[in-house]
Design a protein that fits this description.
300 residues, alpha/beta, Arc Repressor Mutant, subunit A, D-Maltodextrin-Binding Protein, domain 2, nine-stranded mixed sheet, two-stranded antiparallel ribbon, 11 helices, 46% helix, 21% strand, rod-shaped
Length: 300
Amino acid sequence: MTLVQLRHLVVLADMGSFVQASAALFLTQPALTRSIHALEDELGGTLFDRLGRRIALTPFGHEVLGRARRLVSDAEALKQAGQGLHAGLIGQLRVGLSSAPGALLSTPLMLHMAEHHPRLQVQISRGNTAVLLKALREQQLDAAIVDIRDMRPSAELQVTLAFELAAGFLARPDHPLAHRSGLVSLDDVMAYPVASTPLSDEVARLLIARYGPRANPDDMVTLRCDESLSIVEVARRSNAIVLTVNAVAQGLTRLDVSPSLEATARFGLVTLAQRQEAPALRILRERLPHWIERFSTLWP
């Protein structure tokens, strides 16, 4: 038997007439009759009593009809679920966010999903780049937004939607260095605790090129944490100076350190190259450029 035959049974039982049922199903009456006869033969019993132009379910037909309705209903629900999954409207989206992306994107992502895709299950995992890429390779995540300068080249990983955000030395507005007349030197900065998330080798080389060996993060950074918001909060509540993405440090003041750092953090959306993407990932792809544009205007 087929779902088509079961659907014919349900419609015929509801209509009570081969003429009306065949019209509703866009079938000829002989075709519908053949379909019902084939179903009766396979089930081994008569489904309908023929009463002139009308029909009535047999006791056997009543029993079969109940089960047929459930099967047809389940099949329709499965079809709708499949369409919803393909459109990214339901299902699951598992995204890893490293430090700065997590601070900037977690709330907008969850808020957008809650407002526009309330049936979609969203799971955000936080961690450093290495941890998140490991989870991605093990297919525990559908995608990750991480510091791509901290990635090793790999054919199995695909980076799209790469973007840069300005970064620098920042402190609370009433910090002693925030009101200095003239430029601030690295020695001035290092007179205070320096907080940062773990920095890539590329950023470390940039710092050393700008300020000399003393700017090596291993020596310069005294407070290190994977969470950007934590180090920003420390800077808000103390004389610590934070080296981070400007957009994360709302309420802090950028210090005019000489020479100018002119640094950016570079992030990207990373997925497995050979794996079919989760349908809901298209939503993140569509929204991410808008959020990035907004963050870029927070602090040039």
